[in-house]
Amino acid sequence: MSQSEWYVIYTRPNAEKKFAARLTERGIESYLPLSAEVKIWSDRKKTIHEPLFKSYVFARCTIEQLHIVKTVFGFSNFISFGGYPTTIKDRQIEIIKSILRLYADAKSISTRFVMGDEVTIISGPLKGLKGVLASISGKKKVAIKLSHLEQSLLLHLPEAYLMKTANENGEKE
């Protein structure tokens, strides 16, 4: 049997907490980093713990156990590069844990894409279409250009569905 490693799982929207609990029930170690946020209503104040990385859960398992992870309700995809599920070093997980111990209200922002990046949709029903990363009211969206209509459609797509488009030299911009 191979050695356990941390894998990154992309879950269905808002399924992170239940998915992590279900992994644990099946004997697979999971880690869901949670960030504390104080919500204020007119009559009360409450601290809510939200996932630090939306739709991401870390699972420590062997490569042979990946098929078990796939069967857990809430599973969407493994974050992968080159067709293989991505592993995260123990040190990276420890860094995340340390940061959250020191700064419980830490927030994550994506550095994978920036506004204006040309992207290709690599997964889902729109696979193959190209667009530009845009922002409307602070939410990241992809603008798909319909050239014959001189219009663009704004879509909210998971980052896992996107890849930076290569320029003429084959380099990702």
List keywords for this structure.
173 residues; alpha+beta; Alpha-Beta Plaits; SH3 type barrels; 2 domains; five-stranded antiparallel β-sheet; 14 strands; globular
Structural summary, described in words:
The structure is a single chain. Helix content is 17%, strand content 39%. The chain is built from three helices and 14 strands. It has helices spanning 16-25, 66-71, 90-102, and strands at residues 5-11, 29-31, 34-40, 45-51, 56-61, 75-78, 80-81, 84-85, 87-88, 118-121, 130-136, 139-146, 151-155, 162-164. Strands 1, 2, 5, 6 and 9 form a five-stranded antiparallel beta sheet that branches. It has a five-stranded antiparallel beta sheet with strand order 13-12-11-10-14, with no helix packed on it. Strands 3-4 form a two-stranded antiparallel ribbon. The longest helix has 13 residues, at 90-102. The protein starts with a strand and ends in a 9-residue tail after the last strand.
